[in-house]
């Protein structure tokens, strides 16, 4: 049972819990609801396995078209990891805010039904209890956390029967409900990891092969990520959630052996398909200029070299560039991705940087100093990519972002940041935050959507302006507009959705948690 203050804070959860308890008979009350019998486990496994696989494939969508529309053309572009390189994207492009209705609709129209169809069937099979539903609940939160950070308000608490034409929650309500659902899932999964044999679930686990201790670490790590996301808008709740995640008996991801990644589908790794088969994406100038300036040894793991007009190196392309033709765009550096690579969700490096920022904020993140955790984040990232030289890199107090020299002499621009790598305890809080966020951004590659969210939350790292900026007041979008089809298919709830958005339904309106950056 969670602490009373949480139940008071989130009344929807407490009502659901009272209904659950009142519906149980005496035997059920005296049987821990985190336990299920072997017979029930086998029954639920057989019925739920395929749906659990589907849910895992929608956290970061692995099907190539879904990945392209929810990650590569959206998060990767706004996170300044990659940018569109095909001339067909001169007409519609998220970078220059000319995306079509189809593009704007895609994340909502595809993620929502695919997640909730599978989640609701598992909920019905399990009657909303037990380890399998807890697993599904964790996967639901992981998917919806990404979706709410794209649009803001989304349907969440009212989606109980699989019907999606329901009222929207404000983003604050979405986060509060996600914390409650995640806490319940952590409790159940923790008990299961300690007391049950989950080997029968191995065939359905595309991430950890049935190791539920690692799933608990992922759940706590997601809780820490979500807590940091709301740090500047709700610091009291953020601190409480973050410290609970760190102090949990199983804890968070701390080693690369616990990194969360999913098998690529049979048709191949989606990022490989983006750069190789489709030829639609190339490395963005922003990340190339930082890593070139820092002489970062991870470049060869992230980027392919290119030669343009006798210039050879890691050649990034400015976001929003006017692509002369596809061959012109494809000449810039492509990302490194092989067809059999796994799709990464969360890494130990990200968690180290979260803990560094938490410590900077005065939270109890386990006792290490901010600088030690910062250096640990760099070390873990180098280890993840199989690169040596982390100590020398961390001690570089001179190197800075490079200016961007376009080999085609069209979009060159000066550096926009002077932050160096080496941790400086005497630096002011703003410089410390920029240093943490810049190195975290480099380590998050290629999770573009998380990079976009962290930029919006903090304003770091500093990005170049868009090469062709039709909206000069913003560097990257603060959100994307609501799914256009919702105005037709769910019209009765859209007026209320606009009210809880607290702004116009456009790219400029900030999300609830986006209150810190200038």
From TrEMBL:
<keyword id="KW-0732">Signal</keyword>
<feature type="signal peptide">
    <location>
        <begin position="1"/>
        <end position="23"/>
    </location>
</feature>
<protein>
    <submittedName>
        <fullName>RagB/SusD family nutrient uptake outer membrane protein</fullName>
    </submittedName>
</protein>
<dbReference type="Pfam" id="PF12741">
    <property type="entry name" value="SusD-like"/>
</dbReference>
<dbReference type="InterPro" id="IPR011990">
    <property type="entry name" value="TPR-like_helical_dom_sf"/>
</dbReference>
<dbReference type="InterPro" id="IPR024302">
    <property type="entry name" value="SusD-like"/>
</dbReference>
